[in-house]
Amino acid sequence: MTEPTEPLLRVENLTKSFAGRRVLSGVSFEVAPGEVLGLVGESGSGKSTTARCVARLTEPDAGRITLGGRDVLAAGGRELRALRRDMQMVFQDPYSSLNPRMTVAALIEEPLAVHGLEPDRRQRRRRAADLLETVGLSAEHLDRHPRSFSGGQRQRISIARALAVRPRLLICDEPVSSLDVSVQAQVLNLLRDLRQRLDLSILFIAHDLAVVYYLCDRVAVMEQGSLVEIGTRAEVYGNPRHPYTRSLLDAVPVPDPAVERARRTTDRGSHP
């Protein structure tokens, strides 16, 4: 009998308040190695705060986070640096997440220098060129600045920068919401491909349920700081159990006919 795989990321009872207002209430979930978990909900539901707590960009008030069995919240100094190498973040806005004064080469090489992974300058540049090609750009772009790229290209550069240190977990906070629909599809296809090629785990934050359906294996639904439902993509989209999940899905066309039929059957069964 095969032993169950230990989760790469485990989040337990995460709680956070800002100015006396509770924004996270006992949030718990896991991400398995190689899995893409979608964290969905309306604006203000606590999705981005959860992502920032996982990445230690925001300190939670209570709870526990482990990555590969290591305590993220207790880590400091060298241990925290090692943990941050293992989990990298891709932000929503590629226009503000890239320093406009730096070239693409400098942006991608910087994490390698910070983590001491490649002391040789020529090797760092070669690694940056390889990463650009991995995300669908060219080594010819290395000496250009972010302002000369489109939004989709900038997000590809952000992804290349995040991948430079070979992380195990990619935290994507609404990475396609500021892009045109056609460009969204290109970036989502890139993430799917990278997940397979690099055996990446991804925590994918979004409010667009169609996007989450396309990319994610499992879905966790947040409402007002609480996780109200979690399950496989087929379970959550085909047979949502929480009223909030159903209300979100009612407004979104589901691209899989089998799931759409199952949902209509469920609706008829619950509303005679």
Automatic annotation (TrEMBL):
It comes from the Bacteria. Residues 9-249 form the ABC transporter domain. It holds the Pfam family ABC_tran. One of its GO terms (molecular function) is ATP binding. InterPro entries: AAA+_ATPase, ABC_transp_ATP-bind, ABC_transporter-like_ATP-bd, ABC_transporter-like_CS, Oligopep_ABC_C, P-loop_NTPase, PhnK. One of its GO terms (biological process) is peptide transport. Keywords: ATP-binding, Nucleotide-binding, Transport. Belongs to the ABC transporter superfamily. This is Peptide ABC transporter ATP-binding protein.
